[in-house]
Write a structure and sequence with these properties.
Layout (H helix, E strand, L loop, with lengths): L3 E2 L13 H10 L4 E7 L15 H14 L5 E9 L12 E5 L2 E4 L2 E4 L4 H12 L3 H16 L6 E2 L20 H17 L4 E5 L1 H6 L8 H9 L3 E5 L12 H10 L4 E6 L2 E6 L1
Parallel strand pairs: 1-2, 2-3, 3-4, 4-7, 7-8, 8-9
Antiparallel strand pairs: 5-6, 10-11
Helix pairs in contact: 4-5, 5-7
Bound molecules: zinc ion (2 copies).
Length: about 270
């Protein structure tokens, strides 16, 4: 397979390693390209994102590493956006990932991926305990955000399933759940047919989940609609940079895909799975 990852975090947000450490690991692992995707600053304070005043330093550091190792690997400077992003200039980035990590309601903001307790509280407080109303809102917000700009990748499409591997919180086979997810996928695919959906192994590494995002029924739907995919590790440390990439080849094939994409300085490129 072509080894590449466009979803990589560093010490500029909630990652453990520097861009240079991640790049050296990627070179060791035989990557052809590596894209950094620091969490964008939000319009409110958040401890897991880049600080607005540090975004310039982040770009500078990634560009320094890009120049330093340009004969060995193609390094890109991207950003992982959130629907709650602060007002920043996106044109300076090589690419963008559109994600949603929060739910809003009753005057509070809840993370969907921080802990099972926080997600449960959000469902209780905002949705009167209805997990499928929560899912409908999450997917709808993600679709609306993903089509609101000229973004390259949709981040961890079913992030709200993060804890189901350890603490089953809702039934992913529920008809309403599936309908909400498919409706959001269709909305994105109708409006942005060239959007890349990431096949993200982040929670397989961090949570020991047996499957990546997105779930199989979503992947099959993306495939049926002619949608495009890229395999990513949503890596926050050197060790996880290519976590379960070999398994993802089989997973993507099982879902009907024969090719995937990776990002380079000359744009996205396609390879056979
Ligand atoms: Zn994310
Ligand atoms: Zn991420």
């Amino acid at each position: 397979m072509i080894k590449s990852n466009c979803h990589t975090h560093t010490v500029f947000c909630d990652g453990k390693n520097t861009a240079e450490e991640m790049t050296l690991t990627a070179i060791d692992k035989g990557f052809v390209s590596l894209g950094f995707s620091g969490h964008c600053p939000m319009y409110y304070d958040a401890d897991w994102t880049m600080k607005k005043e540090n975004v310039g330093e982040y770009i500078k550091d990634v560009k320094r590493v890009k120049a330093l190792y340009s004969d060995k690997i193609d390094v890109l400077c991207g950003i992982e956006l959130d629907a709650d992003l602060a007002d920043i200039n996106l044109s300076v980035f090589d690419y963008t990932i559109a994600s949603v990590h929060q739910l809003h309601g009753k005057g509070k903001i809840y993370s969907v991926d921080l802990s099972p307790d926080e997600l449960t509280e959000a469902v209780d407080v905002i949705f009167d305990g209805d997990w499928y109303k929560m899912a409908e809102t999450y997917f709808s917000n993600l679709a609306d955000f993903a089509i609101s700009g000229d973004f390259d990748v949709v981040g961890h499409f079913d992030l709200i399933t993060k804890f189901n591997g350890q603490t089953p919180l809702f039934d992913e086979e529920n008809d309403n759940y599936k309908a909400s997810a498919l409706k959001a996928l269709d909305k994105i695919l109708d409006s942005k047919p060239n959007m890349l959906f990431e096949v993200n192994t982040g929670a397989m590494y961090r949570k020991g989940n047996p499957k990546p995002y997105p779930a199989e029924f979503m992947m099959k739907h993306i495939n049926k609609r002619g949608g495009l995919i890229t395999i990513t590790s949503d890596s926050h440390c050197c060790e996880s940079l290519d976590f379960a990439f070999d398994k993802m080849i089989d997973y993507c094939k099982k879902c009907g895909f024969t090719e995937a994409y990776y990002l380079t300085s000359e744009g996205r490129k396609k390879y056979s799975l």
